[in-house]
Specification:
Elements lengths: L16 E5 L4 E4 L10 E8 L7 E6 L4 E4 L7 E9 L6 E6 L4
Antiparallel strand pairs: 1-2, 2-5, 3-4, 3-6, 6-7
Length: 100
């Protein structure tokens, strides 16, 4: 008889949503990680068009909202959320800042 072990990795955090945006800001929120080994999150805002710089932020596991500031008006950003402390798939969305 053979024993097969199946490892199912942790799920990504809850749905990543844009809750507000302006000409130089984007606010995002997400559901908490369900895995108890998760120690926090890494969040990245990268300009899709290449204008502006990539912004990074790190948080503890109790944080589920963040506002990126100092973004370039009228620019499309890809925002990616990764759980820290466990291997998991990132969540990602895109959002334009308002034109000034």
């Amino acid at each position: 008889m053979r024993t097969v072990c199946l490892f199912v990795g942790p799920l990504p955090p809850g749905e990543l949503d844009v809750t507000d945006f302006g000409s130089t800001t984007i606010t995002v929120s997400w559901g908490p990680a369900l895995d108890q080994l998760a120690v926090g999150y890494s969040l990245t805002a990268m300009p899709v068009s290449g204008q502006g710089q990539t912004m990074f932020a790190n948080f503890g596991r109790d944080t589920t909202v963040h506002t990126f500031t100092g973004l370039v008006p009228g620019t499309n950003y890809q925002i990616t959320l990764q759980i820290n402390g466990v291997v998991s798939s990132p969540s990602s969305i895109t959002q334009y800042t308002r034109k000034s």
